[in-house]
Structure formats: C-alpha cells, structure tokens
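Box 3.1 — From sequence to structure: Hydrogenase maturation nickel metallochaperone HypA
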Amino acid sequence: MCEGIVEAVVRRAGDRPVRAVRVRVGGHPVDPDVIEQGVRVAAMGTVAEGADIDLMLEPLRVRCRRCRAETPVNSAMALAACPACGAVDVEVAGHEDVVLESITVDAPVGRNR
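Predicted structure (token representation):
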C-alpha cells in the first residue's frame, strides 16, 4: 500500500519536489503511524522524500448477518464478532480503498511562482 501511494505521488509530481501529500484510507484496520512510516521509507530517494503526510482514516465497517447492524470498528478483532449482538456471522461493509486526495509541489526550478 505504501509503495503504491509513493508511486502515484511521484507520477503526479514529475520532477518537482513534493511538500505535502494527503491520502484517504477507507475500510482498512490500519495503524496510522505504521502507514506514515511506511510512506516515509518508500519515499526515500524520490521527489516525495521529506514531504508532510496527512492521513485521513475512514473506519472499517462490519455488517452482522444476524441482527443487520452495520457498525464502524477500530480493531481487526471486531471482525470476529458483531459489536452489537455478539454473533460471529459478520462481513466487511463499505469500500476498502486508498485515494491520493492531493499533493503540494514546489514550482519547477527556474520558473517564477
């Protein structure tokens, strides 16, 4: 995931240094610190190295097949049982996606801002 984010940033930035990256991660039970560190490591030696990283996390949602409750969860452990009724027949609801929302780049060298 982190390498894919950096590849997309580098494609968009071309040869311009990247100041900031905004990424939306939805439907994945992830630790934001781990994602941020992974992006920093993947960006080493690229135009994205040292960029500020703004992660927008959307919670994972599960739907219970027994009680029909759809609930946001903060832990992969909630995938084992419904937070509402305790049933073990749950499925992931919503979309799992990673979206590069925006990047901020410096002006190309030799151009006025």
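Summary of the box: The longest strand covers residues 18-26.
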